[in-house]
Amino acid sequence: MSNSKRILVKSIAFDILRYALSVLMIPYAVGKLMGVQFTVIPFSAWQLPLEQVQPFQLAWAFLGYTQWFQITLGVFEFIPCVLLFFRRTALMGAVLMLPMAISVALINYSLDLSSYTKTIILVILSINLVLLALCHDVLAKAVRSLIVKHGTYKTSNILKSLLSLLLLIACCVYYAKTSFFTRDMEDSLTGHWTEKRPYEWNLIDESYGGSVLEPRKLKMYFMPHNAYTEINDSSHNVRFIEYDIDKNKKLIRFHYQRWPEYKSDTYIMRDSAYYEMQSDSVLKLIRYEKGSKHLYVFRRRIINETK
Q: 277 φ, ψ to 5°?
């Protein structure tokens, strides 16, 4: 094939693909701009516990939680679509579309959404990559102009780049070691939260001064960094208080040192309680109030156990 024919074929292929990419993405961009794409269905799903929500419902609830965020996503998708319709700006549109296509593909495959949506985004991403491949010479020239100035790369520039790389590695290592959540924060109370299977401790028996009390709701959740919250008949506490464990005295202390403003929250577990693990799945807490013994017996439930 002659060079002129090769250029013509490449030009026709580029035009077909840029229109195809834009046409495939426009419905999703417009749906977001109208604020209707991320609608959680069926509406009864809003009443489900988090562990029972389907992946696509979770994604839609998150991405569509606020209208302005959904519309903003639509803007970032719509602008590349417009640029792709004009040959002079098509390459810019393909470049801007790539991060959007990659992020949508990651969401689809990580949350295991429907095979239809995964197929569509795979086609979109493939077209996007082919478009960029057709313009590889232009992109390579742009990258070279950013990296190498006036055709040379001085020793001082290499040293600066190495220093920047070392600084980046140091930052990554530091934040990996000082992360808010680390894997060594799992124990017999928290459960395997790094595997999305934390423990929920449900009250199954309660007595005071030897008398059995009426059943009531009390669910305890022990979390990393000694954070604690609970659900009871009076409140669904979504804010944390703290707990400390004295293994020698078999004592759990509940306190508000880190968050004193939460003292008004309706927590049942306050102050201190002696604990006893009867088995892996049964926990006893004992508090002494006005000289009388207050006994709580909890049974463990593994959240997301069936997933």
A: -90, 105
- Tokens for 124, please give them: 């979109």
Q: Is the same domain home to 154 and 225?
A: no
State whether 140 and 44 are in the same domain: yes
The residue whose two tokens read 């759990």 is: 252
Q: Is residue 200 part of a domain?
A: yes
For 79, the domain range is 3-163
Q: Is residue 254 part of a domain?
A: yes
pLDDT digits (tens, 9 = 90+) for 251-303: 999 887 766 666 655 778 878 899 999 888 999 999 988 889 999 999 999 99
Is the pLDDT score of 61 beyond 70? yes
Distance CA(118)–CA(128), nearest Å, equals 15
